[in-house]
Amino acid sequence: MGRLADKNILITGGNSGIGLAAAQEFDREGARVAICGLNEGTLQAAKETLGAGSLAGRADVSKLADLDAMFATIKREFGHLDGVFVNAGYSEFLPFEEVTEESFDMVIGSNFKGAYFTIQKALPLLRRGSSVIINASVGARKGWPTTSTVSTCKAAVVHLARILSAELVDRGIRVNTLSPGPTDTAMFGRFAGEEQGEGVKDILRINNPSKRMADPLEIAKLAVYLASDDSAYVVGADFLIDGGVTAISGVGA
Q1: How confident is the model over 39-66, as pLDDT tens digits?
Q2: Taking Cα atoms as reference points, which of 6, 14, 188 lies closest to residue 88?
Q3: Where in the sequence is the domain holding 61, given as residue range(s)?
Q4: Burial call 31-52: b when 16+ CB within 10 Å, e when fewer
């Protein structure tokens, strides 16, 4: 029996990167998994890697109508939820003065608005003892250039988890965040050209005390812990998993 046996868990953005690794690891640990994302092709490919009874559906988490439709399907098929991994997000890295209203709305819509209303609309399905995990970032603690929208969102969801913990703890629902450092996902394919994306990854590796990026599976294993009853006493916490980039200063090295 896995650590998530008999649990029904939703993973937003579960069709790629950390979300896909989490969906597969949750499945291996015995959970019945529902995933959502924007790309129908990758959603169905991801579903084929999961066990019988899993769900996969297209949903834009920044659109409340999509969330309503998704949760209606989950209620019909699962009946209830025991956990949500709020993972869906969109990143764009621009100097402050180059951020447009369109870019701002896309980043805020997926990373903060989407997280906020995903949790709100999941509440009627969450049983006592449920776990809500929000995928934040070390960017919430670092003043990195070009991250004025995405890192601000990540800082917001870290604090949101504390506030929701205070509101939901009496219902037996735990809310926590995990904050990955640079992780080797397809996000780097969005840079202008494969060479530039690989160059960014090289810089991130060199400047990390561990001299590497995280594998998505490493983040997924932490998410399993937070979704499981092993973490029943963990409430309102933020878990750094960043290779030391937050704790260790490069000054004097």
Answers
A1: 999 999 999 999 999 999 999 999 999 9
A2: 14
A3: 8-186+217-241
A4: bbbbbbbbeeebbeebbeebee
